[in-house]
């Protein structure tokens, strides 16, 4: 056989030592005693620099020594789909492309008796003195079958396929797996019939053995349309209805219609309903189609060997039949508390509140999916979430939504009013969990008869409390890293003495590692402990496992104990850096099968022990030089990792978890991606996913740039490629659009930064590789696995080659570069030409990206999925391009200044387009968002938002147009580039966008119309800057043009300030000069959000800032409808808004900031896109601004409406800060934005709304000694 592997990256951990034997003298790591059985191997990419402590040689070397050829660089997904549609097909590998393909000869292995070729020629005995005696018929057996018997004490006699069986020499008969068609093995069937006839000996068959036993009793076999090949195939056991993951590789199945009356099916495949096993109703005969012993695959059903051996031993004395014994072994009786007596009719869902560091947009996505799942089950939903910017708090999702603080008092009020029967606590992060735990402890749920759905609260408390957690894990013989809980600094020092330095200290019950760090000695620990005990009464001291591999699994379990792992992920950064801060790769790249399944089985064991129902995440520390591991933690709730796992695999974790919490069985839920297979399966990936966090530490002065066990990142990106280099470079560009890839020139080489990582470490690595550091040197500094370092080295090596080639890249080099994830811009910089020149060359050479689907099944089943990515490592498209789609560009990575608000706008736009009957495409790469959910649009591209990629998709899809105004600043930045290449940008024209962004053009336009603005000037050198400031008088505002959320803006109060800022600002932007404007003090700031069509206003909202001008609008407290503006001022604001809309000819959304002082209104800026207050005004004024804007953009007539004065309620939007995470940050607010999220509450007046809002951000209202001061004293 020529073997094709679907996963593209093969043999990263090399080939282990053949001479290493186990205690029975059998090869420890291999499945046969000699040789390689396949004819050839076909892979996407073979690893030539494996990295694993067990690796003895590379795959190529090993195959070469056995004379077996292989070929790489093949689009294995395209090949898989071909094989899927045709079944196994004949093929051959050739050196040169033949002149006449038709004349090629293909040899057909099925014309030979393959079983005879594979079988042993003479009898072999293993474990001579063992008992009972098993006779194994060798049709092509795998050694692990023998190991499974021998390790359980049996003696195994291995006999040739056509051996004449003598019953007196054995106690039980085993028929092995093997190649080819069962019809060829007539001799074996005759022998099996002889044993069946005498009826004295138990029989067990696997795979081909199962088909031979079936043939022996008179069944027919047939060829199935799609073979079952892989180690994630779900099989349902008939006696108990439970579902197990199995390994399989076959193309034939047994026809159960032809089973004799005294036999029955034992297992059935949950995907295609083919037979997976048969059993005699009372005699000890059974066989299975899958491999319960397989050494690449799950260990879920290895117990079949135990049952078989028990039956053999008790032959003649057994009281229960084999069938009954199997049912008893596999039976699971659900705990009464995990099943619902009756379905709830109304469910309360707790949201996560304002976005903060460690708890961001992923809970909007999980909550939205939970609401969808409940709606499908016809259950009413009530949501409490003060986060106004989220999709889940929009009309059309939950039946009722309360914008209230997530505090026990408010939640109890809602329960009192709504009387729900059930509550979900695991969909709102730590905020919801902590609130739920408090309500449970104070007996509120019991009082109102509200049942907690899903994972029992006891399990949640057990996984959260370190001490109990360690005890519970030890009960099942697993171990957690040694740690002790302490309550004072003295106790902490004592505990560290017992455990041994270095230690890690962290506060209990905290999110994202708040208040944690490493200590190498007593002084360090003392300062850490003082800091952490301020956050929490309990402090945990752990043994430090810095430098170990960190691996995590996402596990799902239902109330009937069906249990699967959905995704495993490996952190590129070793332990010691919080997973939220690490670069994460899925699936894991450097674990071999033994490690993968050891951790998988442990994960299932742990989740069962805790009784989790729904989704759960387990993190391990794995020793890089042995198979030793510790369990670090278990999160019995949806987390940031589960959002990533969901998007990385295409498996809707949150949706499934919500269904399971209602007591639905996992096998009965459909896989919503393929539409035909079951959700009770483990996704197979045929691509590589890289997640990189985004930090905005530059926004905070005095905050340390080091990253470690406490989370500081504000967002994350996810990139998909067919190899690591491609995905890694994509991800780096996604994090920061100014970066062109793995660029060696961004940072200087610095060993300290390699040892103690900062947010810029990837670029320090790039610089180090460029400076010829070896992989071993870098490994000893960073403890990053050598496999990843080798991959990075590949990029830098090729980068050097590109630079050396001068300005003429050959087409081969260009293709190779694109396959390694280089962008056009990156190549343009390296070869000193323009990006468009590279694009031109690429298109002329026909080098274009291919579109691939994420289908959860690696191409082995047809999938109607719309979940797509681009890759150059391919040779065909997965989809057709009928044209007629409208592209909506999303907001990209969450950062300070661009967060979930823009996701709300993008989703609102997609919804409205769908209502209008238009087909939509979403381009976004943020795994935490609702817009990247598979059911939000017709096609989802998980791709970069850059000119190159958006243009590629636009051209491939023959799209009707692109909407850029819904994703914030990022899409706006590429408007002109797209426009210059004749792409159709819908809505306001890119020239107008440029007129608003470009200070000169905008200012001239205002002057012509007589609209006032603060005095400003654009300056190129320092002298003229000082002169201007003297002219208008300090304070002055210094800023570069084209910025997002006040990046590098500062207020200067003196010449000295000015000089400091200027040096900083000129570094920020080389081709853009600096703008200085007069800074007005004690002025009121007003935000205007509006929608226009062809310059005519359709609707507008005015919000006033509570703080004076000078606090960034993203950090200010907003009130709408305005309370303090007189009618005259409002009229003036309306006039200015109308004028600006007309001048810019706006079609779609825009927003303006205006300063009011002494009855004069001055315009500060105007953005022709949605702003972060759009969701707030839409929900407060009960008018969907985004839907109106969408209709205007696609050119439908819309009637103008007057919604400015609202509907009687007052809304107050309060920013959510995360200063507690950023030690040393200046908490004073200024022109730089520093909030990470926002909440909003409503009331009859602004005071009530403001108080609720403040409480929602976690503000504790003081009980006595309050000083209130408003305005300033003159």
From TrEMBL:
Name of one Pfam family that matches: CPSase_L_D1
TM ranges: none
Organism: Musca domestica
Keyword Repeat: yes
Cofactor(s) of this protein: Zn(2+)
Pathway involvement of the protein, from the record: Pyrimidine metabolism; UMP biosynthesis via de novo pathway; (S)-dihydroorotate from bicarbonate: step 3/3
ATP-grasp domain mapped to chain residues: 470-662, 1003-1194
Highest taxon of source: Eukaryota
UniProt keyword annotation of Calcium present: no
Protein name per the record: CAD
Any one GO BP annotation for this protein: L-arginine biosynthetic process
GO MF assignments: ATP binding; carbamoyl-phosphate synthase (ammonia) activity; carbamoyl-phosphate synthase (glutamine-hydrolyzing) activity; dihydroorotase activity; metal ion binding
InterPro entries found in the cross-reference section: ATP-grasp, ATP_grasp_subdomain_1, CarbamoylP_synth_lsu_oligo_sf, CarbamoylP_synth_ssu, CarbamoylP_synth_ssu_N, CarbP_synth_ssu_N_sf, Class_I_gatase-like, CPAse_ATP-bd
């Amino acid at each position: 056989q020529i073997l094709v592997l679907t996963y593209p990256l093969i043999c990263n951990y090399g080939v282990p030592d053949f001479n290493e034997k186990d205690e029975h003298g059998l090869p420890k790591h291999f499945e046969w005693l000699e040789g390689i059985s396949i004819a050839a191997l076909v892979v996407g990419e073979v690893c030539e620099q494996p990295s694993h402590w067990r690796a003895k040689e590379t795959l190529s070397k090993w195959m070469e020594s056995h004379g077996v050829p292989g070929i790489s660089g093949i689009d294995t997904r395209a090949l898989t789909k071909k094989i899927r549609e045709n079944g196994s097909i004949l093929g051959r590998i050739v050196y040169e492309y033949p002149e006449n393909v038709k004349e090629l000869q293909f040899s057909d292995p099925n014309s030979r008796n393959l079983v005879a070729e594979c079988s042993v020629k003479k009898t072999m005995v293993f474990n001579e003195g063992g008992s009972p005696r098993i006779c194994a018929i060798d049709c092509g057996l795998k050694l692990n079958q023998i190991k499974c018997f021998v390790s359980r004490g049996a003696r195994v006699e291995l006999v040739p396929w056509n051996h004449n069986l003598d019953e007196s020499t054995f106690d039980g008969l085993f028929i092995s797996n093997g190649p080819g068609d069962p019809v060829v093995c007539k001799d074996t069937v005759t022998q099996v019939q002889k044993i069946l006839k005498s009826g004295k000996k138990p029989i067990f068959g696997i795979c081909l053995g199962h088909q031979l036993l079936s043939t022996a009793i008179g069944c027919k076999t047939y060829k199935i349309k799609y073979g079952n090949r892989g180690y994630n195939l779900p099989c349902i056991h008939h006696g108990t209805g439970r579902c197990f993951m199995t390994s399989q590789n076959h193309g034939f199945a047994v026809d159960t219609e032809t089973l004799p009356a005294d036999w029955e099916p034992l297992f059935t495949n949950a995907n295609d309903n083919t037979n997976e096993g048969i059993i005699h109703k009372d005699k000890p005969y059974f066989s299975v189609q899958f491999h319960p012993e397989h050494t690449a695959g799950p260990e879920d059903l290895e117990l079949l060997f135990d049952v078989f051996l028990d039956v053999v031993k008790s032959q003649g004395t057994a009281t229960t039949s084999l069938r009954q014994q199997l049912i008893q072994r596999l039976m699971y009786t659900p705990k009464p508390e995990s099943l619902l007596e009756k379905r709830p009719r109304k469910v309360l869902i707790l949201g996560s509140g304002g976005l903060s560091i460690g708890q961001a947009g992923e809970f909007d996505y999980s909550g939205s999916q939970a609401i969808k799942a409940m709606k499908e089950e016809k259950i009413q939903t009530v949501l409490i979430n003060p986060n106004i910017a989220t999709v889940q708090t929009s009309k059309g999702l939950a039946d009722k939504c309360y914008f209230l603080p997530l505090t026990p008092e408010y939640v109890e009020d809602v329960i009192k009013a709504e009387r729900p029967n059930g509550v979900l606590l695991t969909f709102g992060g730590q905020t919801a969990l902590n609130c739920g735990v408090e309500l449970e402890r104070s007996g509120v749920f019991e009082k109102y008869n509200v049942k907690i759905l899903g994972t029992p609260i006891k399990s949640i408390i057990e996984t959260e409390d370190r001490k109990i957690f360690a005890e519970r894990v030890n009960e099942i013989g697993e171990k957690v890293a040694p740690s002790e809980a302490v309550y004072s600094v003295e106790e902490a020092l004592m505990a560290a003495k017992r455990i041994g330095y270095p230690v890690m200290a962290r506060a209990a019950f905290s999110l994202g590692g708040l208040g944690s760090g490493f200590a190498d000695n007593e002084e360090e620990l003392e300062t850490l402990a003082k800091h952490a005990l301020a956050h929490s009464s309990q402090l945990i001291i752990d043994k430090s496992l810095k430098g170990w591999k960190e691996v995590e699994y996402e596990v799902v379990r239902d109330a009937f104990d069906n249990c699967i792992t959905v995704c495993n992920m490996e952190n590129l950064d070793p332990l010691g850096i919080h997973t939220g801060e690490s670069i994460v790769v899925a699936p894991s790249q450097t674990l071999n099968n033994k490690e993968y399944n050891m951790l998988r089985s442990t994960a299932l064991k742990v989740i069962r022990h805790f009784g989790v129902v729904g989704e759960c995440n387990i993190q391990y520390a794995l020793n890089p030089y042995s198979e030793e591991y510790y369990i670090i933690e278990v999160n019995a709730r949806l987390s940031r990792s589960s959002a990533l796992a969901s998007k990385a695999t295409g498996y809707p974790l949150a949706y499934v978890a919500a269904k399971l919490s209602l007591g639905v069985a996992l096998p009965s839920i459909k896989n919503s991606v393929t539409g035909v297979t079951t959700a009770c399966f483990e996704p197979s990936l045929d691509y590589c996913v890289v997640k990189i966090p985004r930090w905005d530490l530059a926004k905070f002065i005095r905050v340390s740039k080091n990253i470690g066990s406490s989370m500081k990142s504000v967002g994350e990106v996810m990139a998909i490629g067919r190899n690591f280099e491609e995905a890694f470079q994509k991800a780096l560009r996604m994090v920061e659009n100014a970066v062109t890839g793995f660029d060696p020139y961004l940072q200087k080489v610095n060993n300290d930064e390699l040892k103690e990582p900062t947010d810029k470490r990837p670029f320090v690595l790039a610089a180090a590789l460029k400076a010829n550091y070896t992989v071993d040197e870098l490994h000893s500094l960073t403890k990053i696995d050598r496999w990843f370092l080798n991959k990075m080295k590949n990029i830098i090596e090729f980068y050097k080659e590109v630079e050396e080639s001068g300005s003429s890249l050959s087409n081969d080099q260009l293709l190779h570069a694109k396959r390694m994830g280089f962008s056009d811009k990156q190549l343009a910089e390296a070869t000193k030409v323009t990006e468009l020149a590279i694009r031109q060359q690429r298109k002329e050479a026909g080098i274009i990206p291919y579109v691939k689907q994420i289908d959860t099944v690696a191409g082995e089943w047809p999938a109607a999925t719309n979940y797509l990515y681009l890759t150059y490592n391919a040779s065909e498209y997965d989809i057709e391009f009928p044209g007629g789609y409208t592209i909506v560009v999303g907001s990209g990575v969450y950062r300070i200044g661009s967060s979930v608000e823009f996701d709300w706008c993008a989703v609102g736009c997609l919804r409205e387009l769908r209502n209008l009957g238009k087909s939509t495409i979403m381009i976004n790469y943020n795994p935490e968002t609702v817009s990247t959910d598979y059911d939000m649009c017709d096609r989802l591209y998980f791709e970069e938002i850059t000119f190159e990629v958006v243009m590629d998709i636009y051209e491939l899809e023959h799209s009707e147009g692109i909407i850029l105004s819904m994703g914030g600043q990022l899409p706006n930045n590429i408007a002109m580039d797209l426009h210059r290449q004749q792409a159709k940008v819908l809505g306001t024209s890119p020239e107008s966008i440029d007129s608003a962004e470009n200070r000169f053009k905008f200012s001239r336009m205002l002057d012509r119309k007589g609209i006032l603005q603060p005095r400003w000037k654009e300056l190129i050198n320092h002298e003229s800057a000082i002169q201007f400031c003297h002219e208008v008088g300090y304070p002055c505002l210094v800023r570069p043009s084209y910025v997002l959320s006040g990046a590098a803006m500062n207020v200067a109060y003196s010449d000295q300030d000015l000089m400091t800022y200027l040096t900083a600002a000129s570094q920020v932007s080389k081709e853009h000069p600096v703008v200085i404007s007069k800074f007005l003090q004690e002025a009121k700031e007003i935000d205007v959000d509006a929608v226009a069509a062809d310059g005519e206003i359709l609707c507008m909202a005015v919000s006033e800032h509570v703080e004076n001008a000078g606090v960034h609008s993203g950090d200010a407290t907003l009130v709408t409808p305005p309370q303090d503006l007189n009618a005259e001022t409002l009229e003036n604001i309306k006039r200015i808004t109308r004028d600006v809309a007309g001048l810019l000819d706006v079609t779609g959304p825009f927003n303006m900031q205006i300063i009011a002082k002494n009855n004069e209104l001055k315009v500060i800026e105007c953005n022709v896109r949605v702003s972060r207050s759009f969701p707030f005004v839409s929900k407060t004024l009960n008018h969907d601004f985004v839907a109106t804007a969408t209709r205007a953009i696609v050119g439908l007539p819309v009637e103008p409406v007057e919604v400015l004065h609202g509907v009687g309620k007052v809304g107050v939007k309060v920013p959510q800060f995360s200063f507690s995470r950023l030690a040393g940050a200046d908490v004073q607010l200024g022109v730089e934005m520093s909030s990470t999220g926002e909440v909003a509450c409503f009331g009859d007046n602004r005071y009530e709304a403001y108080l609720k809002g403040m409480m929602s951000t976690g503000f504790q209202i003081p009980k006595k000694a309050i000083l209130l001061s408003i305005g300033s004293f003159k």
